[in-house]
Write a structure and sequence with these properties.
flagellum; cilium; cytoplasm; FAP206; 5 strands; single chain; three-stranded antiparallel β-sheet; cilium biogenesis/degradation; rod-shaped
Length: about 260
């Protein structure tokens, strides 16, 4: 990491010798009083804090290890110490110092662009992540994560997962005749085909041909009665017809008519 920083310093020194480095003395001075103070009500505005307008100025925690953010972005990763005497700029919960008045004024015009430029510089030069103490922007670049990666033991990532389904969204149906085994299905198909080729045969003997139970009909005895002269009656004869030949051996039907005189 230190070799890369030394290489950056040598490159910056070479640019300075060629005259490519920005010289603030070549530009017109900047009025820092135009930058809003701590009394500004807009939270999205960069605020300049000084000894005169902020009581706890000496206890402010400087971000980016006190290096100038504008120089870091505009000079492609060049680390230039900031000058707290010019004031401290507070934006998005961070306190930044700058190497010149023009650098501070340029940062206050577009602070989000410079913060994004710092992250981009850290992507190009990962050693700046630990040097500038910007681990919260790169959670996987912590020392513990790097040591685990080098040792080949990645930490196990766990997460709680829950799944909820509707209650009885589909009626339960169980098919008792369902069979998943194709060999069992093949056996059932062969069994059905075998049954269709079979017939049922019966045998009837002479004794069982049109056999029926025997029946006997009798006349029940009557109670004795005496008829007096006052109570008399006449009982007409009864006619009965019997048909012969309806069942049994085929023969011509005959009608037997009987007359009962009771």
């Amino acid at each position: 990491m230190w070799d890369a920083i030394l290489a950056m310093g040598r490159a910056a020194l070479a640019e300075a010798q060629r005259g490519d480095v920005y010289d603030e003395n070549r530009e017109d001075p900047v009025d820092l009083d135009s930058i809003p103070g701590p009394d500004a009500t807009d939270p999205s505005t960069a605020v300049r804090l000084t000894v005169e307008n902020y009581e706890s100025f000496l206890n402010l925690p400087l971000d980016f290890q006190g290096f100038c953010v504008q120089s870091l972005v505009a000079r492609k990763g060049l680390l230039v110490p900031g000058n707290p005497a010019l004031g401290v700029v507070r934006y998005a919960g961070r306190y930044c110092v700058f190497s010149s008045e023009r650098a501070m004024a340029e940062f206050c015009t577009e602070p989000d662009r410079f913060f994004a430029g710092v992250r981009e510089a850290c992507y190009r030069q990962p050693e700046l992540i630990h040097l500038l103490r910007v681990h919260e922007d790169f959670p996987r670049s912590s020392l513990q994560a790097i040591l685990e990666m080098m040792s080949g033991q990645q930490s196990v990532m766990l997460a709680d997962v829950a799944c909820e389904t509707p209650l009885h969204f589909q009626e339960s149906y169980i098919d008792k005749s369902y069979e998943w085994n194709e060999w069992k299905l093949r056996q059932d198909a062969l069994h059905v085909a075998d049954i269709r080729r079979k017939t049922t045969s019966t045998t009837q003997t002479a004794f069982s041909h049109l056999r029926r139970e025997n029946e006997t009909q009798v006349y029940l005895p009557k109670e004795a009665a005496t008829s007096t002269s006052t109570s008399r009656g006449t009982n007409p004869p009864r006619l009965k017809k019997y048909f012969v030949g309806l069942r049994g051996v085929p023969q011509p039907m005959q009608v037997a008519e009987c007359r009962y005189d009771l």
